[in-house]
Amino acid sequence: MPLTMTTKRRLVTAALLAPASAWLFVFLVLPFIAMLVFSVGERGPAGGYQAAFTFAQYANLPARSAAYWNTLMLAPAGAFLCLLVAYPTAYYLAVKASPRHRLLLVSLVVVPFWTSLLVRTYAWMYILGSRGIPNLLDMIGIADVRLLNTPGAVLLGIVYGYLPLMIMPIYVSLEKLDRRLLEASADLGAKPLSTFFSVTLPLSLPGVMTGVALVTILLLGEYLIPQLLGGGKVFFIGNALVDLFLQSRNWPFGSAIAVTLVAIVVVVLTVAMRIAWRISGTRQVDLV
After folding, report:
1. CB under 8 Å to 34, separation ≥6 — which residues?
2. What residues contact residue 210 under an 8 Å CB cut-off, 6+ apart?
3. Residues 6 or more apart whose Cβ sits within 8 Å of residue 264
4. Contact, 161 vs 117, CB < 8 A?
5. Which of 66, 102, 235, 237 is deepest in the core (most CB within 10 A)?
6. Membrane-spanning regions, if any (predicted)?
């Protein structure tokens, strides 16, 4: 019996999706299933995992409340600070910059990604350390200023490290903005500030939500910046996971924390998609 055109299209689609689906299943679904299994187990006598079925690991989550608190406070705060810096930058690049210089300026935004985040964070350790800014302040009579190993240092590292990821979605959203809408608003007598809040900002909100969701989700699992700029005093969930899996070898408890982290990421992503959908009236597939 010959295959219909619809069946052929479905087979072709399935064949094209099969490699990516297999990749996601092996490297995303299976590890998550393993985490779920580990999270209801017990720590072995020598560490690692011992088969069991208990929810004691989830009941013990408050023991890492400081890591949750720091992550859930500093991650949104870092994303908000990135937004405050990124929006004016993206607006200038997309609306104000001349087309001749725009490509160069956008390239400069991406240039920091050419250097490892580890190297850039170590540079900030020197700048904020005793030989950096505090030393200069001490020379002018401002002594005993501690910048490193503080939440402020972590926030500074977050803004520096994740700013390009916030700028690019907003830039793309603003770059697609129909300039005739701005001209029409001006012709109708609206002032520039009124035009911005009534036309530019609402039309760019999908890009804003994409950038905020992207940066926030990545920050929820951040390890390097809190470890280096926080000096072990500003713990994120990522730092707690490294400690439990590699130091304490408490795999079930670490898996329980990892499962809750995935749940938090899903909630953040869902909320961001719903907000973007309500704002724009269409589903924002770029958030997925």
Report:
1. 255
2. 169, 173, 272, 276, 284, 286, 287
3. 72, 220
4. yes
5. 237
6. 72-94, 103-127, 153-174, 195-220, 251-273
* pLDDT for the residue 286: 47
Residues 105/111, Cβ–Cβ less than 8 Å: no
Q: Does residue 7 lie within any of the structural domains?
A: no
CB 86 within 8 A of CB 166: yes
Number of folded domains in the chain? 1
In a domain, 182, yes or no: yes
d(CA 43, CA 252) in angstroms, rounded, equals: 6
> Which two three-digit tokens encode residue 21?
């689906």
Cα–Cα dist 244/165, whole Å: 29
User: How open is the CA angle 42-47-50, to the nearest 5 degrees?
Assistant: 35
CATH code: domain of residue 85: 1.10.3720.10
pTM confidence score: 0.85
Considering only CA atoms, which of 37, 33, 71 is closest in space to residue 54?
Answer: 37
Reported as a pLDDT band with limits 50, 70 and 90, residue 38 is very high
> Can you give the residue range of the structural domain that contains 63?
54-287
Strand partners of residue 50: 42
